[in-house]
Amino acid sequence: MCRRSRLPNDRVMTDVSKPRLNPFRAAPNLLTLLRICLAPILVSAILEDRYALSFILFIAAGLTDALDGLVARLLKQHTMLGQYLDPVADKVLLSTLFLTLMHKGLIPTRVTVLVFGRDVGILLVSALLYAAVGRREFHPSIFGKANTVAQVAAVAVVLLHQLSQAPWVVVMRTTALDATMVLTVVSGLHYAWLVAHRTGAAPANGRPPGQP
Predict the structure, then answer these.
(1) What is the residue extent of each domain of the chain?
(2) Euclidean distance between CA atoms 138 and 17, whole angstroms
(3) Distance between CA atoms of 205 and 49, rounded to whole angstroms?
(4) More confident residue, 54 or 128
(5) What is the pLDDT of residue 137?
(6) What sections of 76-104 are H helices per DSSP?
(7) Domain 26-199 belongs to what architecture?
(8) Alpha-carbon dihedral angle through residues 77, 63, 118, 97, given to the nearest 10 degrees
């Protein structure tokens, strides 16, 4: 009987000792995956000339981008998967849309070539650095973030331009595309400078004491 009376207490102690899982823990990553899943739907809508739907879906994708970061901060759920998945989702969505809009003749080829050239260059350099020295902690710079904002604005205004030919929309479209080209070049050069600076400083910091 003594043993039986202790069992409920033991179960209570065991239940209390177990950490409770937050049911919203995966919410930021799920929002990021939703943004990736929206990419083929957006492409299909653009190819079918359904620009009103495309614009709405793109705004929804932008909201998921803002919400996943907000939810992650509120819940303090910063995971390694999320750190890699979020920029990948942005690149997949934006790169796919730039290609599609170029195919439809809505974005100049030179803009898409610059955007893709920068992204491919960064991926190749990152892969080489990781293979050579194991370096992978290249956080986005202020120029890289500004470039992403310009790309998002460019896609949004290009889609909006198919719905409205208002003068302010035309001006915003030209401004956003020009800003995208300038910031793509500037952020790419800044990234190259960061790579050269960090890889040059790494051997010097890694030398044993006493060596020049």
Answers:
(1) 26-199
(2) 39
(3) 56
(4) 54
(5) 56
(6) 80-103
(7) Up-down Bundle (1.20)
(8) 140
Name 186's Cβ contacts closer than 8 Å, sequence gap at least 6.
143, 147
In angstroms, the CA 162 to CA 205 distance is 54
Distance of CA 110 to the CA centre of its chain: 22
> What is the distance between the terminal CA atoms of the chain, rounded to a whole angstrom?
76
Query: How large is the average pLDDT for residues 186-195?
Result: 82
The radius of gyration of the chain from alpha carbons, rounded to an integer in Å, stands at: 24
Residue type, 173: R
183 with 146: CB under 8 angstroms? Answer: yes
- The DSSP secondary-structure symbol of 207 reads S
Q: What is the helix, strand, coil percentage profile of the chain, to 5?
A: 80, 0, 20
* Cα–Cα distance measured from residue 29 to residue 36, given in angstroms and rounded to the nearest whole number: 11
Alpha carbon 57 to chain centroid distance? 17
pLDDT digits (tens, 9 = 90+) for 61-101: 888 877 766 666 666 666 655 566 677 778 888 889 999 99
CB environment 37-74: b (16+ within 10 A), e (fewer): ebbeebbebbeeeebebbbebbeebeebbebbbebbee
Each residue of 139-155: pLDDT tens digit? 667 888 899 899 999 99
Nearest to 106 by CA among 177, 193, 7: 177
In whole angstroms, give the CA distance from residue 11 to residue 104: 64
Q: How far apart, in whole angstroms, are the C-alpha atoms of residue 127 and residue 89? A: 18
Tokens of 187: 């952020």
Confidence of residue 158 (pLDDT cuts 50, 70, 90): very high
